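Hi everyone,

Forwarding the result from last night's run.
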Amino acid sequence: MENQNKNLLIAIVLSLVVMLGWFWLFPPEQQANDPSVPDAVSTTEDEPMTQQADTAAAPASEAAQAPRISIDTPELAGSISLQGGRIDDLLLKDYHVTLDDTSDNVRLLTPVGEPNAYYALQGWVPAGSLDYPDVPGPDTMWTVQGTGTLSPDTPVTLQWQSPAGLTFTRTIAVDPQYMFTVTDRVENTGDTERRLAPYGMIARHGTPPGLQNFFVLHEGVVGRTDGELVETKYKDVRDLPQVPREGAQAELREATEDGWIGFTDHYWMTTLIPQQGQPFTAVAKYLAQQDIFTTEARMPVMTVAPGATIESSQRMFAGAKEWATIRHYQNDVGIAGFIDSIDWGWFFFLTKPIFSVLHWLNAHIGNMGVSIIALTFLLKALVLPLAYKSYVSMARMKELQPEMEALKERAGDDRTKLQKDMMQLYKDKKVNPAAGCLPMLIQIPIFFSLYKVILVTIELRHAPFFGWLQDLSAPDPSSIYNLFGLLPWGTPEAGTTMATIFIGVLPILLGLSMWLQQKLNPAPADPTQQMIFAWMPWVFMFMLGHFASGLVLYWITNNLITFSQQYMIMTSHGHRPNVFGNIRSSFDRKKKKAAAAAKTKGGK
């Protein structure tokens, strides 16, 4: 018995260490010059020649004063700078910084000259030689053909004439969601053949503000090349090897069939998408001197003969990572693997179907909290056959208690004989002593998968339940500190010790549900086990209480369903749990301990 107690204690302590580690791991810059075009160095005549990123930058004041074209769509607002033809000013109309609908809209792209500049640039680079200034650069001032605002119904056209006789025309279109299409044409009105390579680039000055650095949340470069998903965090981009021909730390990947590359934040993304089915080079780069991250899509060299015209088109996604929208672009537009731009994690085979069902439920129910509760019922129904076998096995184990006690008396101190006889007893009675662990083994990956879904999917961001729970992706905002809003002062600031101690309503309900579930069975006879089991619900209450309220809601619902299932199954096998009796017994034991302690103290 001593060894069994020791093993149980070690197992529970290790479980608590794991949970504490999980809790702490996942708790609820200087302005630089503007990079120009991709930094390659020519090694053959077919390679594009490009300039160094720090040699063609416009002063920030000039960039801020450049004329602009407005962007106005159902989802986006912003503008395009005519200097460089940059898409560099973008707001998301449907998303606010806080729960307050009067708060600022989320800003996705920011012009050069403002903190944390973040923008997209498209263009051409010459192949083989830099002897002729034939291509527009990041400082080129384009002219607008016609007037108007960029909208889903009205594309805009920009034009620039090079000194060498090349006419560059850029048409920018946008759909009602978040997809831009940039079509670049070059007409050669001169008498000399020219070789040019189209490119797209997204530049980000410094690491983004509010970077969370969660182990289970990817923020940084995201892309796909020929079916392979690539995810590189900002800190890992900084550690890329120096590539001499790039003049920077870089990673280049060749795609022949499909792909895309860009930057992803927690809920937002900006991604370059070349024409699928055509080769391109995907580049992730870090310019250390300027502290600038770039992702680039470089297309093959094209030849434009005198009197001829060439054309290149690429898409750019800039917006919220909405599952339905991204799925539409993958399935209907043909962007291979685009749904994987959402960080589904290692358990993608669970997170993807779990979110699909949750999204479907929310579409029919209209409340994400109720949808989580409904999802919990579905998941519990799915594993009910296994749970049934587990609870039946637990009931059968209770039936074997008299026989097991008899075996212990006959075996005495011979532990080998006792183990052998117990295994034979289990075999004869067709009882699996490990069956009680199976539901928990299944529950753990489901719990982590749902944690991932609630953490990464934008559909949970600012999703209300009822009452004070207006954001299921955030911890319960209520607190004992002000008696859940009854007292005239606020709650402790999130992340502080006070906030950890003074928990909210949902964490308390979580602890109570775990405590109630324990009362299905009598307390263990061993005092050490009694103490550990008595403390466990309240320890988990404080640890899980500061997770996303949607996850705590799931855990409470799961506990209550488990309680009901176990109660009914054990009752059907003649072992009705004496819940109230077990509760009374636990209080009686505490009274006896308190009386004994008082007596001992008085005796001293």
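Residues 1-12, 18-37, 39-45, 49-58 have pLDDT under 50 and may be disordered.

Cheers,
N.
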